Amino acid sequence: MSRTAALPADGPGRAPRVPSAAAEYLQLVLDDAAAIEYEGPLVRARAGGADPDTLAELERVRLLALQVRAAFAARRRRESELSALFDTASDLATLRGVDSVLTAIVRRARQLLGTDVSYLTLNDDAHGDTYMRVTDGSVSARFQALRLPMGEGLGGLVAQTAAPYATASYFTDARFHHTDDINGGVHEEGLVAILGVPLIRGSQVIGVLYAADRTERTFDRSEVALLGSLAAHAAIAIDNARLLEETRTALDELSAATRELRAHTESVERAAGAHDRFIDVVLRGGGVEGVAAAVTEALGGRITVLDEEGRPTPADVPGSALPPDPAAALGLARSTGRTVGDGEWWTAAVTVGNDLLGGLVLQRAGDLSDADQRILERAALVTALLLLIRRTASEAEGRVRGELLDELLTGPLRDPDGLRERARRLGADLDRPQAVVVVRVEERCRGRALAAAAHLAATRAGLAGVRDGRVVLCLPDLAPGEAAALACREVSAAVGRPVTAGGAGPAHGPAAVAGAEAEARRCASTLEALGRTGQSASARELGFVGLLVGEGRDVPGFVTATLAPVLDYDARRGTDLVATLRAWFDTGGSPARAAEVLNVHVNTVTQRLDRVARLLGRDWSAPERALEVQLALRLHRLTSADD
């Protein structure tokens, strides 16, 4: 049924009145009828014999209705375009990825302009051309990979001139330069009509947005404007993406700088804290142990102190705390002047000038930053300072102790009280019983041997020095054999090879030290003569063997060392214990027969022998000791002026 069938007419066989026709046209507009249907009322009016004025009025109404229809269509199209632009703006506001935003813009351009294909190219400043970035509706891989030199093809011209261009027939349009490569890609895609508008950021063209058909088509101004609006949004999207990327890069750089600054601040704080600890250790007179504690507090891990040969000090440090080749690592650290890393071990050399004093090894998992390596290097420097101070002080003190000991050994003593006072200032007491030890050591090891002896003497309130190429010690309150064994052990450990030590004494008072030293020297030489190099013994342990075998046989010294208490007693009391001992030995150890020889009562002999036992010790009559006493008596008789 026709839309005009219900409209009334003026009468049978007559054309409709103009007002009725106008209403029919309004109904056509309302129904969004096709343009051809607007001819119906005019055709029926002619068929009904309407007069010319009526027909003219109907034609005017028809034209007005068509204009209203066109206005409504344009408004709907404009609403659709604005909606698409709003959607694009919304996409930009959500800050989605630039690829998704550009894809949406290209797709909307194709939908709004009703084209077969739409696409977008971006300029490549590095290559001086423009390349395909996004396509929609494209089927040709060659077309999707096209690169357009500036000024070549329609798109190259748009990118170069920053002005929109449209062609209804691409291949016959001579306004732009055609190339085989571009023509081949466009032909493979089957495009004919192409519209391109520039993407402008500020005053710079950054790309081109296209809409294209596979048939001839003329693009009107509204379509160019619409595509231009979409291109503006695309430029904004690209610019926002650039700004966002720059912002992200700046934030990443700022975060990295913040992390680096924080790490640097922490390292500076660690270094400052370690520096304060190092200063405190030095000012308090601390040692290497304090430096090691400060390093582990600042850096963590475990510190091992090496000597100049790469050996741990003390020697009982477990080997797991050392690198595979500590000596090589220490040598490399010394030559480079920097910390040497080897896995979890970090080695710094302790040097003074060209002298290598030792090293510090830090065992810690993970990498060690440059700042932390410098902390370890400063610790090595402080350690060198402490060792140098210790060495200087030790050398000075050792020199003073050595000079004092040298005066004690060089008789006669001119000022015993002055020597006592000097010893007191060094923490030594010459009136305490002194065990005197002589250590025989190779010349090339003498320096280390003296350093070890000086350290032992300082810790024991004794004295140490060098006499005729031998190291001499005075150690108070020790038995001679015990002192010799202690010195032998300590010096051997210091020089890294066995040494021979002889002990004598105890010496009571400054005047007795020289005699004890001579006896200890004979004891040491006797040990070497007996093939006991690297061992220790006291003169008493060797007995008369030292007199027979040792170098520089000192008969008066042996007599004095064996019989001194008895000889001194006789001299002070006017007794004759020596004659009683001779008679006792001459009569085979019989008190009665000795009494007969001495022409005294047997009880007198017994009392005298008890006195001898108190002076020489209860073991004086034991076979080995008795042999020494008897030999000393014989030598005393032979060397006495009145015998």
Automatic annotation (TrEMBL):
Residues 97-248 form the GAF domain. It comes from the Bacteria. Pfam families: GAF, GGDEF_2, HTH_30. Belongs to the CdaR family. PANTHER family: CARBOHYDRATE DIACID REGULATOR, DNA-BINDING TRANSCRIPTIONAL ACTIVATOR ADER. This is Transcriptional regulator, CdaR family. It comes from Geodermatophilus aquaeductus.
